Structures are given as structure tokens and as C-alpha cells.
Amino acid sequence: MKYYGIVSAGYYAFYRALTHSRVYLAAFTLLSAFLCTSIVTVSVQAQTKDRRAVLDVQGKVAELTVSPDENIWLVTSYGNTYVTVDAKTELTDWHIDTPLKNLSESIDVKSADLSRITFFNENVAIMTGYIVYVKGESPIHGILRTEDGGHTWQFVEYDFNGTVYSAYAKSTGEAWLTTSAVNQLYYTKDYGNTWTAKRTILKSSSDFEVSSRVFAICMRDSQHGIAGSEIGKAFVTDDNWETATLFLTPRDMSLIPRTQLSSELRRMPRKITIVSTNGVQRMAYWKNYVVIVQDKHAFYAEKNTTQWKAFPSDLIEFGVDARTGTLFGVTKENKIVSHSTPSDFKIIAQLPADEILVDVQAVNGSLYVLGRDNHVFKINGKGLTRFELYTSDHSIPTPEIVKSAGKFAWGLSKNELYVSENGVDDWVREQTLDFNADNFRIVDEQKIILWDGISKSYEYSRGSNNVAEYHQKNPLKNFLSSPLQSISIAISGSGEYQGYSMLLVYNSSSNSDLKSGELVEYNYHPEYTNPFQKTIDKTQIQNVLTEVSASPEAPPRYADFQISGPEIQKYLHMVKTERGNSTRAELADEGARMKKYYPTVPTLLDTLNPHIIKSAIEQSLKPLDKTIEFTQTVKFINQNADTVTVVRSMGTRMALYYIPWTIEYMDQKIVSYNVNLSQSIVSLLPERYVISQFFKGEQLLLMLADYLFSEQNR
What we know:
Structural class: alpha+beta
Largest sheet: 8 strands, antiparallel
Number of helices: 11
Helix content: 10-25%
Number of strands: 51
Strand order of the largest sheet: 47-46-45-44-48-49-50-51
Distance between the termini: 57 Å
């Protein structure tokens, strides 16, 4: 084995020295007094002058690494590493390096794939994944190794051309790597200085199937270990992988319901390349037990048995803390639990309900969680801490949206809110929001109104550092004080086979009427080019806009849709033909319940809470096909030349009654579910631009019934 080069010394030496300097400690004490990071809105007082920029993580992060001294490491498929200064505190500062950059001038860093760092102790660790560079004309394969806690890295060559899928290390200096080499893993007993290839033989048949990608390995001691593959096979050895024996997994014993696979697979960690639905994602020894995660279901069994049992906490992922002997886990409901025994556990925290797990690691009495979009959490008996990915390596760049109020300026980039007192640069973090904001409008230097781009507005006040939901009050009042002058309607659509657009303008023809002008159509069917003329009553439109302004956020009532008797009969006929008729055995019970429940829905709707109707509509709007777009933009213009813009965009999912609409006026945005607004806009359109299927009451009833049934059986 050979070493090649000293790598990446500068940045780590700097931040280690900084951690121990008096200047840093004084600054840290001041920051700690004002800065509190949490899972909800993070309040950063203005006097801290937080100039840390958001860390731009380049490349996919597959695993989370926490060193024994609790620095958090992320490594990426682009060959970058990101590390915190000190994760024992709530205030973290991340730094970036590319440890492969000095290996050779001919290395293509982006072709390297760093997957993980594995620590033997606080100082010695190895970095693995797919690491190769060209020396002369020959490719050199290997790993990176450090003896100073990541201060410097050295390249260690070995005779293997492929990817390391998992690594397991012990403080005694032993480590095991599972790889893409057929029937082969690698072993070291000298802290990664030298490596030996092991060609494992299955006692019961042929070679050990490392070629099936072993993603999970754990060793009880130098001789006894377990491993699991992506195709659901599990192995045990008692001679350090000279030989191995297959043993039954929970899937083999039919302990995982197959009807749950479709929903569970959506929550698979991104580090797993799913080739089959049987994958073993994690295995570990814990006290007198073996613990396994397969298909996102966790089970335990006493050593030397395969009598698998599900945890009563309903775990989908776990980590074992070697220091305390605690098993930490994540449940299907994203609750964090700690187990002292398989049956004794307590809930210690709650992750965001929509968080998707990527990886977990238990260290020093805490569980560290890597979530979607590189969210990092630390959970223990004291609660939950979220580590925001901020770095002092460079200043905050110009935000995506900048609006000035004199010399003072506000800036916004997704969920980060900034201020600049000179109105040009020197941006300071004002607030980290618990939602991504799409835009904002300035009230004054102390207050702004934020828009989440979906349906809600929020008010932020600098004085209190408070973010509160903001409800619009008569937002169109100024617009409605002047009569309507004109209305323009633009429609555009594009799909796999065609695109089209239309523009229609109504202009004032009298004090009470608006009359349509020329209808302009592009790329539409030639048979639809006949003239269109229509006159409408201004008062009707004004009344609808007044109604919207009076209750801008009101959910739709069932009565607003005016469902007729014939539409109810059509709905009942559709129920007989379209719901509950599956011949599949596993759906027979559900079908019987559908046939019993669906006919009762029309009798329930008169008393249905409008918010339930709104939720049902929102759920139905999830797009099915992003390649098809359809947008309607309606502009109402008054005699003062003020404009109210009403927009509706959709994919292939049916937008019944064309709701909701997004209304924009004077930097204000509203999501309206007003049915009368839809009906009024439709009355302005040529008939060929109205999709009549969207205005059929039986379709609305069926959508509501589907929603109510799914909620009842959740």
C-alpha cells in the first residue's frame, strides 16, 4: 500500500485554532446570548449581526457522519466535504473543502463520489466511496485517511476498482468495507493503513453475494458479524468473513405486509439504490439482540435466532449509541424515541411531519438525523436542535429579491430574510423562516408582509422578531373605489402534441357595460376562428370583486356550487360503475366499504365544514403530468389604471370549477376559492375555451366522496 500526497490542511487548521482562541470564545458568548436555533421560526436578533452565508452544498449527500468529538461531516458525490466547527452548541459554522483536489492535476473531482467518513477514534478516520485519480496513464483507486481528525488527508491505494457501499470500524483499528467487487469485501487491522481482500464463501452454496450490493454490515468482535444486501439476503459469519451463512430476514418470514410496500417505498432513504423491494438498509448488535431495518420496518431478535419481532414503537430507522447502550429510533410518524429495552421506550422529540429521512447516527447520548435537503438535527433528552447550514467562509451574497425603503433594504432568498442598513450591501441575517417565501411587500422599515407562494401571508415585525399569519382585510378596497375600465383575458396551453394561446379584451362601452373587442388566437384549430362578441354588465363584475375583497380567504361552501338533483343522480350512477368494483382480493374489503359509504355522501354535504371542502380541493390539485401546462390570466383595470391580476395555472389534474385563483394587487397576493369569481370569469370566455367537464356537479361530489372516504380510513 502507498500514500499519495498531503491534502487539505488549510481550512481545518484555521477553524480548529479559531475554536480555541479567546477572540472566538468572546464572540461566541455574545452570539449565544441572542441566537436560538429551533425547528420552527428561528429568531436572530439584529444586534448579533449574523453575516454567515447559507452553505451551498454541491452534490448529493448520502450519509451523515458525526465524529466522537461531535463534529458533523457531510461528504458529497462531487468530492466535497462540509464540517461544523462544534456541533455541541446550537450555533454552528460550516466549512467546505475538496480533499481530492491535490491528489493529481489530472483528477476529475466531479467524477469522484465521496459517500461517508468512518471514525476509529477522534483522530483517525477513513473516507470512502468511489475515489480514483490518474497517475501518469494509470488509474489509482483507494480511500482517504486522516490521523488528525480531518486536518489533513492522505490517499491509501488498494487493488480494487469499484465503489465502497458501506464501512464499519472499531476503536481497536479494525474496519470492514463492503464493495461492488464480486464476492469480496476488504479488511484492515491497522487503522486503514493496509487492506486485505476477503473472498467469502457461503457454507450452504457458492460465493458470498457481495455483488448484490451489501449496504449494511456490523461486527460484534473481530470474528463475528452480520451483513445485509439490497436484494434482501442476510449473512452471518463467525470467522471474520472467511465463510458466511445465510439466515432468514423478516421479509423471508412474511412479517412485512406486502400491501404497504407502495407507500413505504416513497420514504426510502436516498442513499439506497432500489433494485428490489426486499432491501436490508441497516443491521446492528444491541445488548443481547440483533436489530434490522428491511423495507423501512425495524425488527429485533435475540442473538443466534431469527425470531424477529416488531418494535412496539413502530420504528422505521434506528441508531445504537455505543457509549450509553441506548437504541434511538425514528417512527413512521417521525417521532424520535429512545429504547432501553425492546419493549421499554419513551418519545423524546418530534421531527417535522413532512421530513424525509436520509440517514441517522447515534453518538454520545444523542441521535443525529440527516433529512431531505440536507436538514441536520440533534436529538437527546434535552430536546431537538436543528443545525442550520451557515458558513462564515464568505459573506452573504445579494438576496434573490431586494426591496428598498430609503437607505434601508430588505432581502429575501427562500426562507432567509436579510436586511442592509446602507441599502446596497453588507447583508445581515434578520430571520430564518420555517417556510419558503415567494415574495414580500414593505410596510415600513420595521414591518413586511411575506407571501409563501401557495396560499398564506405572514407579517414580520423587527421589533418583536415575530412571524405571524397575516389575514388580508378588504385588500381590493382602493381598486373598487374606481369603476372598471377594461378586462383582458390571456390563455396559454402547452402539451405533448400542441400549444395554443388566446387574448381577449373587454373595453368600456358605456357607464354600465363592457364590450368584447378583437379575439386573437394562435395555433388553435382553424374551425374556431369565427368572431366572438359579447357585452357584460360592469356591476356584476364589481359585485363579485367586492364579495372577494370582503372575504378574501373564505373557503367554499357546499351551497356555493348549487348542485342539482340530476347531478346527484349522475353521481350515484358513477359510484355504481367506478367505485368499489375491484376484483383484486386485497382490495375486496375496501370495495365493500366504498359501496356502503359513497351513496350516503350527498346527505352529508349540506352540513360539511367549508374547510373540509377546501382541503379536498387542495388535495385534488396535485399535478399528474408536469409536461402539460394551462394558464389563465385575467386583468381587471379601473379608470385610475390600477390593475387586479387573477391567475389560474394547472397541469392535468382536474381543477373543478377552476378554483382556486391567485389574486395579485399592489404587492398583495390572495388565494381565492370564490365560486362566483370562477363563474364570472367563465362567462367572459368563448365557449370553446371552457372545459365543461370541470363544471359538473357529479364530478365535485365524487371528488369530495373520495376525500372523505380516504380521511375516514386513514
